[in-house]
Every structure is written in C-alpha cells, then in structure tokens.
Design goal:
binds ligand NAX; ATP-binding; NAD; elongated; YjeF_N_dom_sf; 17% strand; Rossmann fold; binds adenosine-5'-diphosphate; EC 4.2.1.136; NADP; binds potassium ion; 12-stranded mixed beta sheet
Amino acid sequence: MDGSLFTAARMRAIEAAHFESGAATGAELMERAGTGAVAAMEAAWPDLAARPGRAVLACGPGNNGGDGYVVARLLAQRGWDVTVFALGTPRAGGDAAGMRARWGGPPRPLSELRVQGADLLVDAVFGTGLARAPEGLEALFAASRAGPRVLALDVPSGLDADSGRVFAPGQAVRADLTVSFGAWKAGHALAEGPALCGQVRLVDLGLDLSGAAAKLVGPPHAAALLKGGGHKYDDGHALVLTGGFGHTGAARLAARAALRVGAGLVTLGAPGSAMLECAAQSMAVMLRRVDDGAALAELLRDARFNALCLGPGLGTGDRAAGLVDAALAAGRGCVLDADALTVLAARDAPFGPLHANCVLTPHDGEFARLFPDLAERLRAPAAQGPLWSRIDAAREAASRAGATVLLKGPDTIIAAPDGTVAVHAAAYDRATPQLATAGAGDVLAGLIAGLLARGTAPFDAACRAAWLHVEAARVFGPGLIAEDLPEALPSVLRALAHGT
Ligand SMILES: NC(=O)C1=CN([C@@H]2O[C@H](COP(=O)(O)OP(=O)(O)OC[C@H]3O[C@@H](n4cnc5c(N)ncnc54)[C@H](O)[C@@H]3O)[C@@H](O)[C@H]2O)[C@@H](O)CC1
Ligand SMILES: Nc1ncnc2c1ncn2[C@@H]1O[C@H](COP(=O)(O)OP(=O)(O)O)[C@@H](O)[C@H]1O
Ligand SMILES: [K+]
C-alpha cells in the first residue's frame, strides 16, 4: 500500500467535484470502475482469464450495484455464464439504473442467492454508501466464506469504508480480492479491513484526489537515516530509564534499538539495585545511576541528553512517577511508553505536563486507560455509519494530549496535535504477525527515542520508526523475538541505502 487513505464522504465530494468540472460523467466513471475490476480480476487469477466459467453477481441498489452490472455485462461478453442476484432496484434515471438496463436480463432476488458450482462471486451490494447495519445478507456472507473465489467491488459489503469495522461480528463479505475505485479507503487498511479484503488492487479513475484522512507511511529516505559524517554528538544522546533489578530487559532492548537506529550515544539510567545487572549486559550502551526524579533532573543539566525514553520495565511506583515528572519538566524529546503511560493514566490530569516534543506509544490497553471515552467509542456497537475509526480516535487523543500519539497495532496510527495523521498498515504484503512477541513494543519505543536524539521531529520519528520496526520484522521473518529486531536493522538500512 502506498499513498493516502480517504473516507467515504471525502470520496463523494471528490466525485461530485469531478462531475461538476465536466471531467467525466457518472456513467463514464462506472464503466471505468467495472472495466478496471475485470482487468484486476484477470490479472490476479490468470486461470479464470484463460477459461471463463460461471460467475454469480450480487448487486445492491446504489452505485456499487451499478459497478456490478457493468462487470456482469463485461464478463458475459468474455464468455462467462453470468447470473445476477439483486438487492433492491436502482433509482430510476440514475447511472446504476442505466447499467442495469444495459446488462439486460432480469436479476433474481438476492434472497435466492446460490453459489454452488460458481467459479467467481462478485460482491457489488454495498460500497462506500453503507449507512447502517446490513440486514438479510447472511446467505451472501456465508457464501463468501465457502466455494468460489470472491471479488469485492470497492469494499466488501458490510465493511465500513471509514473504519474497517463491521456492525456485528461476521456481518460482512470476506473477499479474496477487493478492487478499490479511485483511491484507498481508510477501511482497507484499518481494523478488520485487511482480513476481509483479502488483497486490494487500486483502479485509477483519474480523480483529483485531495483531503485525505491520513497518509500511508512508506519507506523513509535513506538520507534521513544514514549518518552524515559528523561527530557522534551530532547524532544526539538518548537516555533510556530502566526499572529495578530483574526488570531491566525491556529498557535494554529499547536502548539497543536507539543505538542501532543511529543515536550517537545511548545511556541507560538505572536505580542502584539494577546497576550490576545492567553493567554486566551492556557494552556500547553506557550506564548512569538514576535513583529518583531529583537525580534525573540533576543528570539532565547536561543538555547533551536530548532525548528520553521512559516506560519499558520502568515500574509504576513513586520512583517511576518522579522520573516521569522530571523527564517532562526538562522539555526534551521524550517517548512515553508502557509503565510511563500507566503512571500518567492514574493521575487526575494526565496531559498537563505533556508537550509537543513528547511521543506517546500506547497499545490498545494503554490507550483505553489514558483515553477511556475514546476507546469506548471505538468499541461501541453502532446502528448508523460511518463508524468511528482508529484514525479518529488517535487524532482526538493527540489533540487532547498536545503530543504525538502512536497507537500500536497491525494498523498503527500516528497522530500529531495539529491533526496530521499517518497510518502504518502491517497488512497485505507487509503483514508481520511475528511482531506479536514480548518486547517488540520496547524496541519501537527505543527506535523513536533514537530518532528523536538525532533531531528528527516527533511525528516523523514515530512514522519512520513504525516502518523500520515492521521492515526489520519482515527481514528477519518467522521465529522472531524482540532481541532480533535491533540486529535486523543494519540490513534494513543497507537496503534503503542501496535503494532495494
Ligand atoms: N466515488 C466514486 O468516485 C465512484 C464510486 N463508484 C461506486 O459507487 C459506490 C458508492 O455508491 P453509493 O453512494 O450509491 O452507495 P452504495 O452503492 O454503497 O450503497 C448505497 C445504497 O444502499 C442503501 N443502503 C446503505 N446502507 C444500507 C443497509 N444497511 N441496508 C440497506 N440499504 C442500505 C443506501 O440507501 C443507498 O441506496 C462506491 O462504493 C463505488 O462502488 C463508482 O461507480 C465509480 C466512482
Ligand atoms: N499482528 C501484528 N502485526 C503487526 N504488528 C504487530 C502485531 N502484533 C503486535 N504488533 C506490533 O508489535 C508491537 C507490540 O508492542 P506492545 O503491545 O507494546 O508489546 P510489548 O509490551 O510486549 O513490547 C507494536 O509495535 C505492535 O504494533
Ligand atoms: K461491495
């Protein structure tokens, strides 16, 4: 995936502007969409292109159904045996009604849907116009999980195009291939979207795209990551705070990641009880004793410590609380992860001390502790669409916190306080289920801290770290444990440098 993600409402506005400018008519766009869908299907499944078989189409009452009638006609022209089942009737005089008339044969009611013996099921019931929980589509949903290959037009019916959520479990088509018209919809990348879309191909409709809900995070430029040839202090000094004896592994992982991503120096700040443990396991990473907030404030008188990382293995007691206060008071680049987020969430006013150089990296549980109302809104069943998305939640969280928020998951959202949002989708050809391993998040926190130390702005540091994290997991492959991630980074950086 690359480019940007759009909402259904924005797509409607872009489409309307396109018509108004006279660039194309609705019927022309529909024809382009159907033609592109058939081409994408044939490219994905050459066996079906070579030997047309039996196709079953499910067409809805709106323009998604209109696209379906185009596909029915084109498949029939190619020699397919086509049966169309319809839900409702398109509005008389509209583009979809025109396409239905051009298809010809009267469709059968969707309630009679049968897919036995079919090679292809084309889902054209609902696209970006899905406005409420679908009813009476159980047979379609079940058929999409058994039997023929499934091509979904624009979005699998039942999937909310803005959020990638479904109104109720199982209430959506599961496609093998989804052909998206004009642009990626946010729902292709978020939540259940990737699992329900199968794979996604984009059909260019020649639309003038602007006003995206979020950018997709792509590979960083090598020049932004490779060292520039100066002194080590030119690449900053990151300080990673650790908890006590027996709990230092997480911070050590973060520290190593910060060093690997290019921070000039990295120091672990440990309480007295953990000094020996850290010293025994550190070489390039340096070590300082930091017993409490006062000691941290004293250490930070050295302005060369320009980025901090607190949370991994930090603990949630008084020492941790003191460290969080001292760290935030210093105003430096600061990653707050794991226990540091729990410390903040327990306070009456968690966001007061945060500032624009902070990056918060909650997973869903930590997010729910910090922003319970936003998490509830994401979970709540809804009768009406469009559904609230993780993009909406992260954007609101960043605005409230006055800091960059990176909401972790296979669909990682990075939101800046000014409303800018990016999505890193570890999906489709970048799926990395191997990242669901203890300590992976600690490494991510360290990567961000390392990039902050190098002077990267918080939002960019979070985006680049998210990409590097997943790329390191991809390069390593199955069997990954968190320790492997920093060690896989050199080959990721090498590939970026060589443009491969
Ligand atoms: N935006 C664009 O640039 C283009 C859009 N096209 C197609 O147009 C689609 C959007 O078309 P529409 O806006 O007509 O929307 P849809 O075709 O997705 O569905 C809307 C229709 O279904 C009804 N509906 C919504 N939810 C329902 C529910 N739960 N139960 C029963 N009925 C329900 C609505 O009242 C409306 O009649 C896109 O997904 C795409 O397939 C393409 O034709 C080409 C260009
Ligand atoms: N299935 C998955 N696909 C892609 N990334 C994942 C998946 N599961 C977890 N991750 C990523 O792995 C990291 C896990 O972080 P976290 O939940 O904090 O775990 P830990 O505390 O064990 O380090 C996050 O960056 C998250 O985005
Ligand atoms: K559809």
